[in-house]
Amino acid sequence: MKAKMKMLAGGALGAVLLTLATVSGAVAADKVVLKMVGAFPIGPSPTAEIGNKFMESVNRLGEGKVEINYLGASDVVPTFDQPEALVNGIFDVWYGAPNYWSGVVPGGDVTELSTYKVPDNGPGSELYDYLVDLFEQKGVRYLAHAAGDVGVGTHFLSTNFEVASVDDLSGKKLRVAPLTRHFVEAVGAEPITLPPSDIFLAIDRGTVNGFTWPVADGYTRNGWQTVAKYLINQPMYRSGAGLAMNLDKWNSLAPEVQEILLKAVEEAQLFAQDWFAKNEQEQVELMKKGGMEVVDLSGEASQKWTEIAHSALWDYYKSVLTPEQISDVARLLEIKQ
Questions:
Q1: Which pTM was predicted?
Q2: Phi-psi label, residue 51: left if phi above 0, alpha if psi -120 to 50, beta otherwise
């Protein structure tokens, strides 16, 4: 009898364990796993930390429901092929420079001209919803533009020649990012496209006379402070990091999971404010220690620089957006035409 009771008890326990395993398996099966690729590797790049923060927030807020797995950066998909790869569903979530979308979503980086503390005003705002609609037309779910406050974490020009006004840039060869090309052309300089890895030698050998770069994004890690002489203290645009998602994958998510992602977006945008300010301050101090001089322009020269930078990029947007879209963007960004 005791042996029989023992067998029954063992059988009951086995049944319970099997049930728990089945339930656990069902829960695990219900959890959504998203694959993330970024323009810059997490760790060396402060900008990539926005993608990392978003991932950490999703994994914390969505525990048991949704999880993001980081696959890598350009070692997985070449940087400038990533937007198309996201559209095609090669991976699910992306982070990188907002202007990297200009080839897929013309005008998708209009928040570079935003004067709001959070460039897109965050989820639920009219501007945010406008960008969601703009990206959806190209198979992308817009998630965020996360940046420092206005004038913080932005693009700056570094040179090996003295600069007192934009007039001094005429005829110079300046390495540009896609975002700053329009400004450089507008001031009569020659825009040169080079990967970041080539900037050091180009400046050192005089192949280019200067270059634009968001100072907060690891400037001194590249050693540029040892070959560039001047940092022109004229912030341009917003820079920061963009977040986006494959539209079909987004639409497949339950509303509860979508809300988790949007909450994580808000956390990443809040984090970006202090993060870029901290990194920019640290970088500028290291640049000074490296021998660079920070150049402040006079009031009139500073205003002229800012106006040209703004109008050059705005003219570009007018060339890629319809008149109706331009009217909407001008209203949403409070830009006087």
A1: 0.88
A2: alpha
